[in-house]
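Title: Request for sanity check on Carboxypeptidase regulatory-like domain-containing protein prediction

Description:
We are preparing a figure and want to confirm that the structure record we downloaded matches what your pipeline produces today. Could someone re-run it with the sequence below and paste the raw structure tokens into this thread? We only need the token string, no images.
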Amino acid sequence: MPDVGTLQVSLVSNRGKRPITDAAVEISSAGEPDKILEILKTDVSGQTEVIELETPPLEYSMEPGLNQPYSEYNLKITAPGFEPVEVSGSQMLSGQLALQNLSLEPTITEMASYEVLAIGPHTLYGDYPPKIAESEVKDIQATGEVVLSRVVIPEYVIVHDGAVSDNTAKNYYVLYKDYIKNVASCEIYSTWPKETLKANILAIMSFTLNRVYTEWYRSHCSFMVGKCGSAGIFFLLLFAF
């Protein structure tokens, strides 16, 4: 028998963040997208029930190997008064609860097509180019390279969806805690031992706060956006998931 993981979908409106009730969520395997496995409905809290779905064995995610350690599912989401969305490649690990949280846009046209959100392979399994090289030490005399007087925890991180030099890529406001969770989900497997997860997440937080504290990327932009919640200073933090 295959291993199983669990999945729950949560939907809110992009306007006001209110829960979306009575939305339909069609679930299919990425390998057989036309075969519907489950159809779920959201409740008054905008959440579906938690369901079980097949996954590869737990052992696949515990050490590097050729076998893909997670299964992939597609989610087609429709809700009255909102634009439809399709999530392609939602990843499921053995014994883990996958939470798929989405904000839907109110309907603009009656003939709306699905917005497709494609999730790429996990960084521990996919084949990605190496990180863009950066100087280990910045020239502190350069314009905009200002070290803050103290370490601050930002309320939001602005994610630049592309290379630092790509001015056409979009910027997204992401809550700091959500940013850390998203990066952790991309870089480590939730099946790992608790202490291993804690060590990796602390490293991610340390790296992120270093970039905020030293205003590492400020010289790459002509404007400053975002605001640290309690410090009252502005910063631009450019990262790609």
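Thanks, this matches our download. The helical segments are 176-187, 194-213.
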